Amino acid sequence: QVQLVESGGGLVQPGGSLRLSCAASGIIFGISAMEWHRQAPGKQRERVATISSGGSTYYTDSVKGRFTISMDNAKNTVYLQMSSLKPEDTAVYYCKAGIKTTLTLAYDFWGQGTQVTVSS
């Protein structure tokens, strides 16, 4: 079975920085892409950033220039470096990964979420 475990959330002042981590463990034949999503109270979950196994990246417009996604393929771990944080970045952040669990089967897995609160 595959598990995604996130860490690094917390309380930070506006303008501050945080680094989120998400480590995948279990039977993993390969990872096609890893993503960060977030869900603020009363809002729909939205995709924040994506990184493919080849290193291609995507960012939603509201975080471009402030957030950086990266991946350590050897550790099956994705990071989200968040800088110049704003109160509107407050949300539960979820990690998602497309993982091959056999040579031919791939599934999407989600982490449990980590709270990020930006407030003075």
Kindly state the number of beta strands.
11
Estimated share of beta-strand residues: over 45%
Count the DSSP helices: 0
Query: Helical percent range?
Result: under 10%
Query: Spans of 5+ residues with little confidence (pLDDT < 50)?
Result: none
Overall mean pLDDT stands at 96
What distance lies between the first and last C-alpha atoms, to the nearest angstrom? 40 Å
Order of helices and strands: EEEEEEEEEEE
User: What composes the largest sheet?
Assistant: 7 strands, mixed
Helix/sheet category? mainly beta
In a nutshell, what does this entry contain?
This protein has no helices and eleven strands. By secondary structure, it is an all-beta fold.
Q: Would you kindly provide a written description of the structure presented here, covering whatever features stand out?
A:
This protein has strands at residues 3-7, 10-12, 18-25, 30-39, 46-52, 57-59, 67-72, 77-82, 91-100, 106-110, 114-118. It has 120 residues and is mostly beta strands. The model has no long low-confidence stretch (mean pLDDT 96). The radius of gyration is 14 Å and the shape is elongated.
Name the descriptors.
120 residues, mainly beta, seven-stranded mixed β-sheet, four-stranded antiparallel β-sheet, 11 strands, elongated
List the helices and strands and how they pair.
Blueprint: E1 3-7, E2 10-12, E3 18-25, E4 30-39, E5 46-52, E6 57-59, E7 67-72, E8 77-82, E9 91-100, E10 106-110, E11 114-118
